[in-house]
Amino acid sequence: MRIKTLLAGAVAAFALTSPALAQDVAITGGQVLTGTSVIENGTVVIRNGKVVSVGTGAAPAGLRVIDARGKIVTPGFVAVDSGLAGTEVGSVRGSNDLANRANTLTAAFDLSYGLDPWSFTLPVARLGGVTRAVVTPQHGGSGGGHSHDDSDFAGAGQGGFQTPGLFAGQAAVIKLGGSDILVKPRVAMVAPFGEAGAAVAGGARGAEFVLFKETLGEVRAYARNKAAYERADMRALSLSRADMEALIPVADGRMPLIVTVNRASDIQQVLRLAREEGIKVILDGAAEGWLVADEIAAAKVPVILHPTTNLPSNFEMRAARMQNAAALNAAGVVIALKGNEGAAHRARDIRYNAGNAVSHGLPFAAAIQAITVNPARIFGFDGQFGELKAGAAGDVVVWSGDPLEPLSQPSAVLIDGVEQPLQARNLLLRDRYRTGGEGAMPPAYGN
Amino acid sequence: MLFSRLRGPSLAVLTCALGALSLSACATTGDAASQTPTASASSSSKDRTMAAGLDGWTNQDPYPSTYRGLPRQNMAIVGATVLTGAGQKIEGGVVVVTDGRIAAVGGADTPVPAGHQVVDARGRFVTPGIIDIHSHLGVYPSPGVQGMSDGNEATNPNTAQVWAEHSIWPQDPGFNTARAGGVTTAHILPGSANLFGGRGVTVRNVPSVTMQGMKFPNAPYGLKMACGENPSRVYGSRNQSPATGMGNVAGYRTAFIAAQDYKEKWDKWRETGQGTPPTRNLQLETLAGVLDGSILVQNHCYRADEMAVMLDVAKEFGYKITTFHHAVEAYKVAPLLAREGVCAAMWTGWWGFKMEALDGIEENAALTDAPEGSCAVIHSDDAELIQRLNQETAAALSAGRRAGMDISEEHAISWITLNAAKAIGIDKETGSLESGKRADVVIWSADPFSIYARADQVFIDGGLAYDRANPAFQPVSDFELGQPGFGVSAAGVAQGAR
Predict the structure, then answer these.
(1) Sheet with B130-135: strands ordered across
(2) I need a labelling partner for A261 at 20 to 30 A (CA). Which of A232, B172, B248, B369 fits?
(3) Where's the Amidohydrolase-related domain (chain A) (predicted)?
């Protein structure tokens, strides 16, 4: 028994770090939630890492088969506003590459350079069915809306830090498998608005909006006069060249701007700003979004939100409700649902958050969309992942039951067609101590 | 408080037991807390009259509960799947509530007394009211603004003299949202900036204008102690002790030496009545209450090795640790905790936010629960999580089953009911659906281990405190009146059911 345990541990440890090979595979017999539809007794065929067909036919001959009878098959979930691969231990500054705190670089901050494929957060998130993430720079308004364990001793408000400028940097899309996890860097720019944005600008919302418009004006002037800028034949500009370069696609309306904003009136102001400046925005947070859901829908602006925010944690979310996701969805807003606590260590909670949105009025199908298809669409990856359809990445999770239920667990997780080990640091700890840690040999020998 | 004042470290456990007994005794005679000295306090024949407030023993309940309970009627909840909290699962069960107490719990053949209102709960689930033993509702309320941030008296590593109840803002909207999640009882603690954070208080989760109106009658006080990173970070960053783990332990020991000395002086003076009475010291008085077993130690302690040290500190000074909170590594010393009879309160999902939380695993509750004599508890420490402790428990149960452990729902529900009640010393009063206990009951729309389950009705002492279908029983706090969104339904749901 002892030797068997040791061997199993050794195999598991190996599997945790060794890259697996893409395999052609068919997943058969399960109820398939494609992201947009439901197929009973479905067959998902993956070749060369991509989905080639989703239907009800038999598996092609010769293909390896994953038997999903009695199970539920979903696309891998897509974590938004995530810190995956960008942080190991929240309080250990050296292990956190999500926030640019102390220098003058703002918009140009590109967190993709700091993402670690060997981060121990990734296998843990996979166990929650997460296979892709939009890793997003942190700022003073980031997070699920609460702190715990007295991390905020002074009660000075959320976040506890400010970005050095109006922009927190650029987000990247990753996959949660393999040694090359970066799917695409610089997919969106991030800017805090509301209380956090006002704090950066000097304390008042009115300062931030004026500064923001002025900054965009400078970026456009720079873009038109790069030659003059290089000759130093141009008026002084407030941002560095790197920041202005990073902002050109935002000013052009090509790169979406993730705007963290919660108060209904702030949302209205941001929608107006986007209209006036011709920029593309994604609302992040939107705790009071349900109050202006029709306006958000009319502006065709998507929202990424934390669906269990229902307390007036501060003065910009006094109208927070559990029904926010349901109300926005009903109004026609494209929504994506977040995990907890910055969706790094607790990215796996995304399925529970989706379940809670359902129990508060969001249709089940819309909740599945909000953690699969919608985040892919919002960030410009429609059809590439987050959906089981021909041509999409072979990111598939087989669940023992309803994926939104805590009592369900994944039995298989594939990323780009590669079956991932269902192993993680937390399970290694579990197995080391599952017999109480009081054997003849210290637990350290039980690896 | 009615706790007997036996002295000496070796009697601490016995004192706890007597305390629990007196709790249930006073429950049968009404909730009014005693404000008169007990016989032992006035046993000396000598005249030891002191000015009001100078002798803490003559009035151990200076901020007495005025909790009266909500209007209630006798009832029988019939037809539900009943998880009693004490390990039983009864299909088609009957829960009889008489005069705010559980009168009977049994199968479909359980007789319903004449005159009892019948509540049809067929197809639904019934559990005891959820108990959260680690909450900062009211002391770190919503909104979390500077003027309301009253949870940490972070001015000295030892603030055993402060009482969380003096910081509670009863208008915290979080009490209402927690109730909508089935929470009927909460232990409100000071924060963990200090080695000794102060006294915690147990409250009935009813809307009230005053803190006293929520106070759980005769529940024992807790003393919040904290291990680890928080105290050493807070004071170390001020170039002050403690700056390290060893500084933390020196701080506990120094304080208990002073407390032993203080307690001996008072004991001696009470016995002999000679000389000058000691000067009352609120800090030492609370620590002396720990030494005599009347105040239960609620010890924030993440790491297994630190728990083992704290158990030895407790032995060195002859007190008992009732519960380790945030016991992220409890699973590493589960047999030790069970042998010592210490409860461990845990999260399921939180890990990795700081070094001492690095080894947090979802299986913690299941593994800690496994040894004979264990006391595993799931707690929140958070105004959002407290609304979904059933889900946090479901995730813990699921992780245990993933590990191949055979754990039933009727057992796992004890982690947020009966074990939680034990962990704050109120298990004779509540925590399970057993005859004689307070009728703290939740009727769930579905299996509470399902993500889709909602608390349909929540009863506290038999009084309807929340009804998901009836806005008349969906309290909204003063703070929320006239605020943005006030009175407006979201997705067709009234504000009070948010």
Answers:
(1) B130-135, B183-188, B196-204, B222-226, B296-300, B321-325, B343-346, B376-378
(2) B172
(3) 346-407
CATH number of the domain encompassing residue B391:
3.20.20.140
- Cβ-contact A228, A234 below 8 angstroms: yes
Residue B178 Cα distances to B164, B184, B315, B406, B408, angstroms? 19, 8, 37, 30, 25
- Which residues of A, range 43-102, sit inside 8 Å of B by Cβ? 88-92
| pLDDT tens sequence across A258-279 | 999 999 999 999 999 999 999 9
For residue B326, the chain A residues in CB contact (below 8 A) are 149
CA distances to A40, B85, B220, B345 from B422, in Å: 47, 12, 11, 11
B122: left (phi over 0), alpha (psi -120 to 50) or beta: beta
A residues 209..238 contacting B (CB < 8 A): none
Provide the pLDDT for residue A143: 63
Give the one of A88, A92, A315 whose C-beta lies nearest to B143's C-beta.
A315
Residue B427 pLDDT: 98
Count of beta carbons in the 10 Å neighbourhood of residue A332: 12
Short-list B398, B424, B433, CA closest to B110: B433
Is the torsion defined by CA of A209, A215, A219, A222 positive or negative?
Answer: positive
Total structural domains within chain B: 1
Q: Looking at residue B10, what is its pLDDT?
A: 34
Cross-chain CB nearest to A407 (options B146, B349, B394): B394
pLDDT for res A160: 55
Closest CA to B359 of B368, B367, B350: B350
- ipTM, two decimals, is 0.93
Of B474, B495, B477, B475, which is closest to residue B486 (Cα–Cα)? B495
Has residue B238 been placed in a domain? yes
- Would you state the pLDDT for residue A447? 64
Query: A339 in helix, strand or coil?
Result: coil
Residue among A392, A389, A441, A418 nearest A126 (CA): A418
Asked if B56 and B48 count as a contact pair (C-beta separation under 8 A), the reply is: no
Residue B335 lies in a domain: yes
Which tokens go with B148? 């309301």
Cβ-based neighbour number of residue A121 at 10 Å:
29
Mutation for testing the A interface, residue in B234, B393, B498 having most A CBs under 10 Å: B498
Sorted by where each starts, the structural domains of chain A and their CATH numbers stand as 77-384 (3.20.20.140)
Domain of residue B50, residue span: 9-20+37-66+131-428
Residues of chain A neighbouring B144 (CB-CB closer than 8 A): 146, 152, 155, 157-158, 313-314
CB of A435 within 8 Å of a chain B CB? The answer is no
Range A350-379 average pLDDT: 98
Nearest-Cα residue of chain B relative to residue A147 = B382
Closest-CA distance, B253 to chain A, in angstroms, reads 24
Q: How far apart are CA B225 and CA A258, in angstroms?
A: 42
| Stretches in chain B below the pLDDT threshold 70 | 1-48
**∠ Cα A294 A297 A298 (to 5°):** 85
Q: How far apart are CA A115 and CA A136, in angstroms?
A: 11
Count CA atoms within 13 Å of residue A59 on its CB side: 20
- Nearest residue of chain B to residue A265 (CA atoms): B484
User: In chain A, what residues touch B401 (CB-CB under 8 Å)?
Assistant: 407
In a domain, B83, yes or no: no
Residue whose tokens read 């579905």: B446
